[in-house]
Amino acid sequence: MSGDSVTKSDQTRKNIDTVPALRRAVTIMDLVAASGDGLTAAEITRHLALPKSTAHGQLNVLTELGLLVRTADGTFRLGPHLMRWADGFLSQMDIVALFREYFASDSALEGYTITLTVLDRDEVVYISCRNSDKPLGHTFRIGMRLPAPFTATGKMLLSRLNDDQLNALFNAHFPAPMTAASVQNLAELKQELATIRERHFSIDNGQIHAAMTCVGAAIYDHSGRAVAGIATSFLSSEAGAGLIDILGEKMRNAALALSRQCGYQG
């Protein structure tokens, strides 16, 4: 057997041997992350049914790399090196690019206007949109702001806030209604938000434009925080209960797919 063949064979064997070690390392990291309070080496060994020598060797390497830290009480916790990876992931995450890419290839909502917004105190800001060819009587523009209580995305994002946060936003001033259907006050808004939390999608039933209905859902990031909202818009004359439920489910599915790309695990 030639020297080159031996070298290649040895390298292949090393690669094969490394894969289980990498899997064990990830399993250990997941276990420590889920523990909350940290785990001792003995607890990790017992939970994963690992040989002591294997577990200790793995823990030593993970600690050396800064992926785990050993505290004064002997427990292992997640280490600072993970933040470099997290920061790198977050810097690559562009919600607008994800939105455009997803809806460029999505056929389930083809023909519908789709918007992407973020919450800025008591307003939503439109940061991307895909306008359809169908006339709605209302044109969405990037940079446009609307009162959050009246829009589908705004209602969805506000539904993730607690009463204290809602009171801070709207106790002193509630926006003037845009149509006769617009929610009139904070008490009415809170009733709507309670329904949204149960249904998991939101409805603007002509509250920003009388002839237009919108259905929205929330996009969540890696921490479980609602970071943006998406909505589809269509003529109110088309808005039967069946269509709203169908589009509500489609928007939830689209929002979940985008959330997964943002690192959401829920």
TrEMBL record:
Residue ranges annotated for the IclR-ED domain, each copy included: 81-264
Key word Transcription regulation present: yes
Domain HTH iclR-type: 19-80
Keywords: DNA-binding, Plasmid, Transcription, Transcription regulation
PROSITE patterns in alphabetical order: HTH_ICLR, ICLR_ED
Molecular function GO terms recorded: DNA binding; DNA-binding transcription factor activity
InterPro entries for this protein: GAF-like_dom_sf, HTH_MetabolicPath_Reg, Tscrpt_reg_IclR_C, Tscrpt_reg_IclR_N, WH-like_DNA-bd_sf, WH_DNA-bd_sf
GO biological process: negative regulation of DNA-templated transcription
Protein name according to UniProt: HTH-type transcriptional repressor AllR
